[in-house]
Design a protein that fits this description.
Belongs to the short-chain dehydrogenases/reductases (SDR) family. GO terms for molecular function: oxidoreductase activity. The chain has helices at residues 35-46, 64-78, 101-129, 150-169, 187-190, 195-207, 216-226, and strands spanning 26-30, 50-54, 83-86, 132-137, 174-181, 184-185, 214-215, 238-241. It has seven helices and eight strands, in the order βαβαβαβαββααβαβ.
């Protein structure tokens, strides 16, 4: 079955961006080399942001030294970090009884520990300046479990709880929120010749209110809205980006 990239019957007006919305702001994005991270970086760039891009090929962000060094390098180059978008993560399918302690620690480090370390590194500067946006990535797997994602769902549930707690301590002008994507089609997925993968997406579409595949741009636009100065009164919140899956 062909990829469903537009919802039948929908008649949407053009999506508009503003080339100077994030002018003068520095956006740090992890997991920026491909997929959702790449789409998010491109959308911020199109709206005038200065970007600091990190990917696991360069920084795993699993140790205090790695995070401190990465954030210090950004501050040395730009003097500030206004928006931190943590999109790096990993989600291997591992049945619970096949999972090892190594699998558990890898998932927790990649998804949760990295969020903790990055937040701890960027928050002081945001508090000092009186402005900042911290955006983490949870997952629908935290609230709608799937077979093989027990550890991943637990790690992402921890990210959600951690982000809400961060909002309590963030301080004036600084917000902390998270996005929870469902299964998202990326360039790699769309080019995958394996028909089994497309069947999984089509199954997801069947559960959604919005009858099309989720795209990286859907998450990127949500992140950019959360990151705007107009969302000062929105913090400690999770934003489901899944076409209404959790309602069905």
């Amino acid at each position: 079955m062909a990829a469903i990239l537009t919802q039948p019957g929908a008649n949407l007006p053009p999506i508009r961006t503003y080339p100077d919305k994030f002018a003068g702001q520095v956006v740090l994005i992890t997991g920026a080399a491909q997929g959702i991270g790449e789409a998010t970086a491109e959308l911020f760039a199109a709206q005038g942001a200065s970007l600091a891009l990190i990917d696991k090929n360069d920084h795993l962000l699993n140790t205090t030294h790695q995070v401190t060094s990465a954030v210090a390098a950004v501050l040395a180059a730009h003097s500030q970090i206004d928006i931190s978008v943590h999109l790096a993560g990993a989600y291997p399918l591992i049945p619970l009884l096949s999972a090892t302690l190594t699998d558990f620690h890898t998932q927790m480090n990649t998804n949760m520990l990295s969020a903790f370390l990055l937040t701890r590194a960027v928050l002081p500067g945001m508090q000092q300046r009186g402005y900042g946006r911290i955006i983490n990535t949870a997952s629908e797997a935290a609230t709608r479990p799937e077979v093989g994602l027990a550890i991943y769902g637990a790690a992402k549930g921890a990210v959600a709880a951690f982000t809400r707690a961060t909002a309590l301590e963030a301080g004036p002008g600084v917000t902390a929120n998270y996005v929870s994507p469902s299964l998202i089609a990326t360039k790699q997925t769309l080019e995958d010749p394996d028909p089994a993968r497309k069947k999984i997406f089509d199954m997801c579409v069947g559960r959604q209110c919005v009858k099309r595949w989720g795209l990286a741009g859907d998450v990127a636009r949500t992140v950019c809205w959360i990151a705007g100065p107009e969302t000062e009164f929105v913090t400690g919140q999770g934003f489901d980006v899944g076409g209404g899956t959790l309602f069905t």
